[in-house]
Amino acid sequence: MQSLTKHETILWSTLFEHAWDGMVVLRQNGSVYRANRRYADMLGYTPEEMKALHVWDWDTQFSQKELLEMLQNVDSSGAHFETQQRRKDGTTIDVELNNNGAYYRGEKLVFCIVRDITAHKETEEQLRQNEELLQGIASQVPGALHQYRMAPDGSRSFPYFSEGIAELGGLTQEELSGTSAEPVMSHILPEDAVDVEARLQETAKTLSHFHAEFRICHGDGSIRWIESHSMPQKEADGSIVWTGILLDVTQRKKAEERVLEMAITDGLTGITNRQEFNRLLEHEIERAARYDTPLSMIMYDLDYFKKINDRFGHNAGDDVLITVAKLVNDNIRSIDSQGRWGGEEFMVLLPQTGLDAARGVAEKLRRVIADHRFEQLDTITASFGVVELAIREDSRSLAQRVDEALYRAKALGRNRVEVYISPVPDSNGSGPSPA
Questions:
Q1: 344 an active-site residue?
Q2: What pTM, to 2 d.p., does this model score?
Q3: Catalytic pick among 344, 393, 404, 418
């Protein structure tokens, strides 16, 4: 290299030695014209050692032929690319190169600015691996991970949801491709959507945990139960973003419904059991008092039922109980309730029904049972007691009175209806009495 003037020396020093990036000037034959200390340090050499090297001594990505061709073709418009270079100790680094060709003192040189991007590449690779890991985890989650955004202007969107959202809701690609949340949210049943929206608004204000269970119309037309858990965060622009998970809990809901049904249903007849009937009775008494409407109750008992079991066996007796319960259910209103009180005793609750109408219902049920032809048994009969709820009467008193009315029906010959008229002493001081 020709000797440099004082001004040129200052210029080279300013450009090279004080530059933040590594810099190297190459001849078109691949040898080093000059390298700054930062670049020499980057590769683990001294600047003097660098002068004895050619670019293919440290570049690992391109062959000598390729590098010579590149050096010949670099012009003033520059070239930008990434490559990998070998350090003196044998380790490699990733670098980003910006090259420009220019003539200096009659010789074409290639000026290279070199930036070590190894850490950046490692970060990118770690992020890629993390993203793959998260995507892998998300694909194994039995549901869908999601982010739901509510912007200050009220618009809604899903910035992210995992692949499981398509299967969870049976959604089409068209529904998932847009930016609006409406195509997805419209699958929530309207009666449940009101509650979901209320919970969203509440947690948006408090930034508290969101939890809701709601039904959706799946893409296949079925109704599915979805459980949602998420935590909201407020962003700088005022948007609220909920990050969480959606789970299909349809099977769990069905199991819960079965357990509940078992808890309130008589195992033999399939009608309400005594515990649930008592709950319904308390509820109807409160409602009758609140709205000042009549409420009546029927209690019936199968006549000589023990003889049926003794003669034909308990299986035949069970068939009779099942058939009678169905006969009664088929002949009462949808607002009426029947429950098995115990053994062959049954109760029927008649909301908004006075004593005379209740007596008529009991008589109708008595005839339905008496007219039915049972296998093996031919016919059986039942006795009925009927009462109407009195002012300020409780469930225990009402049940006691209907039991006494039934006892009177059996005492008077069975297969009949008896009513209990007065639950409290009258003005003459006489006690309660059946009709």
A1: yes
A2: 0.54
A3: 344
